[in-house]
Amino acid sequence: MTRTKSPPSEAAVAPDAAEYAALVVELADHDRRYHTEDAPTISDAAYDALRRRLQTLEAAHPEFVTGASPSKTVGAAPSEKFTKVRHKVGMLSLGNIFADDEVAEFCARIRRFLGMAEDAPLAVTAEPKIDGLSCSLRYEAGVLVQAATRGDGYEGEDVTTNVRTIQDIPHQLNGKPPGVLEIRGEIYMTKAGFAGVNARQAEAGKPVFANPRNAAAGSLRQLESAVTASRPLQFFAYAWGEASQQPADTQTGMVAAFKRFGLPVNPLMVLCDSAEALLAQYRAIEAQRAALPYDIDGVVYKVDSIALQERLGFISRSPRWAVAHKFPAERATTILRKIEIQVGRTGSMTPVARLDPVTVGGVVVTNATLHNEDEIARKDVREGDTVEIQRAGDVIPQVLGPVLDKRPADATPYVFPDICPICGSAALREIDEKTGKADVVRRCTGGLICPAQAIERLKHFASRNALDIEGLGDKQIEQFYHDGLIATPGDIFTLAKRDARSLKKLKDREGFGATSVKKLFEAIDARRQMPLNRLIFALGIRHVGEGGSKRLARHFGSFAALRETARAAAPGSEARAEIENIQDVGGVVAECVYDFFAEPHNETVLDDLLKEIDPQPMEAIATTSPVAGKTVVFTGALERMTREEAKAQAERLGAKVAGSVSKTTDLVVAGPGAGSKLKKAVEFGIETISEEDWLARIAAG
Fold first, then answer.
1. Residue pLDDT, tens place only, 109-142
2. Counting Cβ atoms within 10 Å, is residue 578 exposed (0-12), middle (13-18) or buried (19+)?
């Protein structure tokens, strides 16, 4: 990139865009580690801080928001080790609030959305937020037939056999439950149970768990149900998915029905009639927190009326009618001994703080991410400093800043390296050509000559959320790379063939054997046909996460179609416009896709890879809604509902709601006062209907 002078109006946008893009990648990685691997590398508090910064940037720059944003995704993809379960009703996560005044705003926002008066009655429940693992239990004719983890919110892991070993969960419901009833709740481990499990782990010489949440998740997601049965897991029911008939018309009524059916429910849930009452219950639960037998990290508020819940709908990854009010993080101080630099697959250089071990909330922590060099400079964090840290439920804390009166006399400001510590190449902060502003992330320019980048790209390619090649973990990839066995993704699929010709067999290497090598080669062969979205994600295209990979896969259908369009997607071209107009994709992703396929080396790597694999189209989404899969634009004034309510309704029915009209738009709903969007729809020959016609159409489905 070159340095150019830019208009002042753009100067503030570029750094925000770069920071936003980096946050998207970082949060997606944390979601994968937390939800899929049960091995978080950041505290709840640090994670929440990143999400709040993301939300701030999205509020200031709505044009940044795409489907790749963590604000539009839930959890992480399920592991390939378990059979998949497609949720009939999505298992989404909750938005978070932290300050007292946000409670009043939550209530006010609901009233505004529904067009209610400011003082209109609004019943809202308050209950503890259990720090465990979400699980869905499907009962048919009162009998437990299936249990699944949340996964990515749409597809989870089948853990039925393991769940049947949990004493809290009945195999047969009491009374007369609906014919089909999916109970959602939290599987957790008590503090006493956690202590006992860790004592047994230590006695057996096995790794101990970091906290009860990780212990519960690790215990449930076992391939051997006997291991799960040996762990003291418990369950609280608090929500539902598919139901052939709802036993009640309120949240409190549904939870009371769960209790009648024989399911455990939390006794601390209460019904409140004001923001002040919600805060009072928050304080009451917070005061009991230390004495409770299980871990909680906040209080959940839910609109009580199910009819209002349905009207309110969802905002991408979370319901409008519920929110989690998080507790303040726990804090401690320790000494920052060293700042080390880790190099990622895109060359990004991330500073990591190495800390003297310190116990915070019962967990020993030794590491923390420092995000980037600007964050280090802003906080003036130095090696040797005593630093204040905070954590809330997980392993690695957030560094809040130094304790200045304890700073050593010889502590000097940290100088971020401008040379890659791995390959010695220059490390630069790219300059945006439009604004002349530097990216927040410094990157190694070594590219493919940098072992760290090459290895990290291969790790990503084989990782759980990408191709998920069993037996080809980080350790094996590092060894194979350094031994010259694999350098590109295609090399993975020719490994067995080359091993057969080699005089030095893989089975004879230290750490391997005939059985493990056979299983590895079988796992590699099993990935020769994989869903297209997994291949796209595995390629590691910058800013293309799991959500973006799915949208690209569904739009193009085949890798050949994506590749052809991407090659032609120069700025200003019809191909570029096609990618940009895919729902929740946008310009940043379109540019990165074009850049990836425009790189000659990448094309060569892809040619070699495609000789070995056959990517398959994604499974179609089955739905009977007449607007499912349609791209809909609302314009003009709506008289029967608010604009937000109309969008939520369309999304519930499987439609994609766009903010502008393009050639890919299927339907425009125009109310009084419709202007340029309606005119454009007429020019493109797009079907245009009234609000009444829209309501009639969706009712017919």
1. 999 999 899 989 999 999 999 999 999 999 999 9
2. buried
Pick from 406, 412, 409: nearest CA to 333: 406
pTM: 0.56
Location of structure tokens 């608090």: 238
Supply 603's token pair. Answer: 């094309």
Q: Which tokens sit at 450?
A: 């940098």
CA atoms within 13 A on the CB side of 96: 19
Neighbours of 449 (CB within 10 A): 13
Q: 338: exposed, middle or buried (C-beta count within 10 Å: 0-12, 13-18, 19+)? A: exposed
Q: Are 197 and 214 in contact (CB under 8 A)?
A: no
What does the alpha-carbon distance between residue 372 and residue 391 come to, in Å, rounded to a whole number? 19
Q: Is residue 383 within 8 Å of residue 337, measured between CB atoms?
A: yes
Helix (H) or strand (E) holding 239: strand 233-243
Catalytic annotation, pick one of 129, 550, 677, 680: 129
Chosen CATH of 1-70+329-449 out of 2.40.128.130, 2.40.50.140, 1.20.1600.10, 2.40.10.240: 2.40.50.140
54 vs 56: CA distance, rounded Å: 5
Annotation marks residue 519 as catalytic: no
Kindly report, residue by residue over 568-622, the tens digit of the pLDDT.
999 999 999 989 888 678 888 998 899 889 888 788 889 999 999 999 987 555 4
CATH class, domain 84-324, is: alpha beta
d(CA 376, CA 391): 19
Query: ∠ CA(531), CA(314), CA(256), 5° rounding?
Result: 110
Contact 75, 93 (CB under 8 A): yes
3-state secondary structure of 315: strand
> Coil, strand, or helix at residue 226?
helix
Q: Which CATH number fits domain 532-610: 2.30.33.40, 1.10.150.20, 3.40.50.1240, 3.40.50.300?
A: 1.10.150.20
Give 631-700's CATH code, choosing from 3.40.50.300, 3.40.50.720, 3.40.50.10190, 1.10.10.10.
Answer: 3.40.50.10190
